[in-house]
What we know:
This protein has an eight-stranded mixed β-sheet, with helices on both faces. The N and C termini lie far apart (about 40 Å). The model has no long low-confidence stretch (mean pLDDT about 95). It is α/β, with parallel strands linked by helices. It contains ten helices and eight strands. It has one domain (about 50-305): 3-Layer(aba) Sandwich (Rossmann fold). Helix 5 (about 125-140) packs across helix 6 (about 155-170). The chain has helices spanning about 5-15, 15-20, 35-45, 95-105, 125-140, 155-170, 195, 205-215, 250-260, 285-305; strands at about 55-60, 65-70, 80-85, 110-115, 150-155, 175-180, 240-245, 265-270.
Amino acid sequence: MTSLRSKIIIGMIRNRHLFKGRLRPEVVDETFSVEAFRRSIDKSSERVKIPKTVRVEPISIAGMYAEWIVPQNPLKDKVLMYIHGGGFISGSCLTHRMHVAKFARECQMKSLLFDYRLAPEHPFPAAPQDCVTAYKWLLEQGIAHQDIVVGGESAGATLVLSLLLALKEQLIELPRAAFSISPVTDLRCLAGSFSYNAPHDVAPMGSWTVWTNMYIAGNDPTTPLLSPLFGDFRGIPPLYICVGTHEIHYDDCVAIARVAREHGVDVTLREWDKMVHAFPLLTPLFPEAKEAFEEICREVRVRSESEK
């Protein structure tokens, strides 16, 4: 049974337009301004403080801005590479360092966050290329592939899957494990949950079409690095997928878990009743978010500390 607190918090997010004096929810269409959207998110993110128990170390990866987010007493030689979400058109170290700080602290792992290139200025394949660059940089720093866990949420969760496929394709040693929170796995957005869950989820109406089309930019949407559902996952490391049953991406998550299992991957599909898009990042605002977040972090630690 879902908690009262989750119903209140999710209800407030779903009806956020009312707090802005608007009677109707936002609809993303051809008039959508990427620049204004990014400014709004950045402005909100600037007010969020990082816990004093976590330090942030700015770095550069092949000209790409990145940050090490380091908790107190991290596990030796273990690294979490986190790929941020934002619909492929937004997100950065600024918007996500507070989320990654929570992962770093709970997982007890030094964590890498980086500003991959965004659409529409830099459509596919820029983002997955940058993810491969960041991963290869970790290897160049002397970090063993089996000491790396890769994770992300939303668009970042999709890029986690794309990264695994790209590494396999390029014959680069794969990470120890990966987690993917609320990925879209078929960017044609044809799954039934885009319709039947649209009234329940928190994603702006129409965003899944407009934003993904900016990223696809005329490429074949069934290309595996765009839509991982069409990829070959044989040989991919253990994969943990988290999704809420009220998400527009629900069917996509169920489908990718099925395909990966058919390919012999050790897959954990965690479905949370009546939860919405990327809800674990809302920890500790309500019990389900906190429990899901802690479960993901436990999985990361167990995989990291298991025998090679």
